Fold this sequence. Notes:
Layout: H1 13-22, H2 34-38, H3 49-57, H4 68-72, H5 78-82, H6 89-102, H7 112-126, H8 131-142, H9 151-157, H10 171-188
Helix pairs in contact: 1-6, 7-8, 7-10
Amino acid sequence: MTMSIKKGTASHGLLRTVEQMADVDLSVCFQCKKCDSGCPVSHLTASPPSEVVRRLHLGAGNELLESDLVWMCVSCETCFARCPMGIDIPSAIDALRVLAVKQQTPTPEGDMPLFNRAFLKTVKIFGRTYDLGMITAHKIGTKSYLKDAEKFPVMLKKKKIALLPPRGADRKTARRIFDSVKRKKENQK
């Protein structure tokens, strides 16, 4: 994804907003790119984590919200663990994701936002992720009902996926967290 930042028009408003939302100081990044080398999705994206941070430094605006990394980041925190400065990049990416949703930024091609919603929905309902429920919601959303269907019996046989929802999860705590986030969003409006 080619993005240009015009000289003299740089605004650090997005940088400040992301830093406040994520409670991080991105100015300590010295672009060592250790975050890129550990990121499991950096080779799949047009903008790896270090580039997103650098663009924020240079005053990128809302065009950064259209970055594919915003939706592809799996929040594995490998970048955070490898960062010599201890920058919580996943929190910054989450803040960008929240801003992208708030501003109704066009999502990149693919179905990453749908996958994120399906994942969070199963966590909200069951207290932890329920793979079969998530896959079902994703298949319905993408209308790709039979794609990869041949893999399902193999996954069942190898016990990689369960037919029933997880037991033992603390559903009340998960719902309380989701309700708290919902109230916080309503109060910010």
